[in-house]
Amino acid sequence: MSNTAWENLSNQAVAAAGVVYFLALLVHLAEWAAMRQPAADRSLVAAGGLEKRDGAGTAGDDVTDTTAGRGERIAFLTRLGFLLTALACAIHFVSLLGRGMAADPNRVPWGNMYEFTLSGTFVVALLYLVLYKKFALAWMGPIVVAFVLTVLMVAVIWLHDEVAPLAESLNSPWLVIHVVSAVIATGAFTLGGIASIMFLVKSRRLRLDAERGEDAAAAGWLDRVPSLDRLDKLAYRVHAFAFPVWTFAVLITGPIWAHEAWSRYWNWDPKEVWAFITWVVYAGYLHARATAGWKGRKAAMLALVGLGTLWFNFIGINYFSSTSQHAYAVERVVDVAEAPPLTG
């Protein structure tokens, strides 16, 4: 295949992945809608389901049959949503492969902001699929798919760039080592942030229900989300995995690559500074949990601060900084000597 054919394949694969992600989102939303127990069923259950219907059985039997049918429908939609997400992720990978094969010479698909965004969203989806069974992440499906689909749309509409050879300073073995670790950590931090967000959402829901004197276990999509304790533990475990990977990317491979390209380990570049700020926030999160016993709401709020610094480092610096040598998303001509050695 020619380079043009590979690039066209990549563009078509991105579009196809977006369509399949959208279908997966629709299926997950239908799944959530099916979880809403009708008010009539709830009132019958609350009344004990003792009213007769045509002498053929009790209303409680009807409610049981309805609940069983709804459970089967929810289980089917859950499996279908997961399969569509897996298919979209596979097509997503084809788009990355096409970008790398379209370059002359062939290279890893991390030469510009568009390609890094494709890679970051792919890793978020892939980590969700890999951890799906281990951590019972079925509840996270619509959130992950909506996030990936939204960021992909932003990348295609505003960040798309033609395939080009890597800048000289990017053509280094450290590119693979640094970016792979940074992308994996970003994906894991994002999943941990989603768990922290849902912890805050569910805790608020339970608190409001308690204040209104309502049943905290009332049927609804939010009841699919694990208990607060499980959400808290999930967030902690994912952050504990991501932090050393981020440390490796930011404090080890990044400075080594910077020294190779710029003859200095640290340049006070805005991207470097914000990456370090992100590291400090997450270090404080893990330290507070381990020593001060921070759990629940306090830990979740601190995790969201870290998520905010992480994504500002990824998006904000590339768009709002005029001095960063990492701001390769800005449409300007960059001299090869100034080309950023750190693409994350």
UniProtKB/TrEMBL annotation:
One matching Pfam family, short form?
A: Cytochrom_C_asm
Q: Name the GO cellular-component terms.
A: plasma membrane
InterPro entries the record matches: Cyt_c_assembly, Cyt_c_biogenesis_CcsA, Cyt_c_biogenesis_CcsA/CcmC
* Stretches that traverse the bilayer: 12-34, 80-101, 113-131, 138-159, 179-201, 234-258, 273-292, 299-320
The keyword Transmembrane is assigned to this record: yes
Q: Tell me a Gene Ontology molecular-function term this record carries.
A: heme binding
The biological process GO terms on file are: cytochrome complex assembly
Principal location class = membrane
Write down the superkingdom of origin.
Bacteria
The question of whether Glycoprotein is a record keyword is answered with no
Swiss-Prot/TrEMBL keywords: Cytochrome c-type biogenesis, Membrane, Transmembrane, Transmembrane helix
- Residues in Cytochrome c assembly protein domain copies: 110-321
Where in the cell? Membrane
How is this protein situated with respect to the membrane?
Multi-pass membrane protein
- Its name, as the record gives it, is C-type cytochrome biogenesis protein CcsB
Q: Which organism encodes this protein?
A: Nocardioides caeni
Q: What is the lineage of its organism?
A: Bacteria, Bacillati, Actinomycetota, Actinomycetes, Propionibacteriales
Gene (UniProt) = ccsB
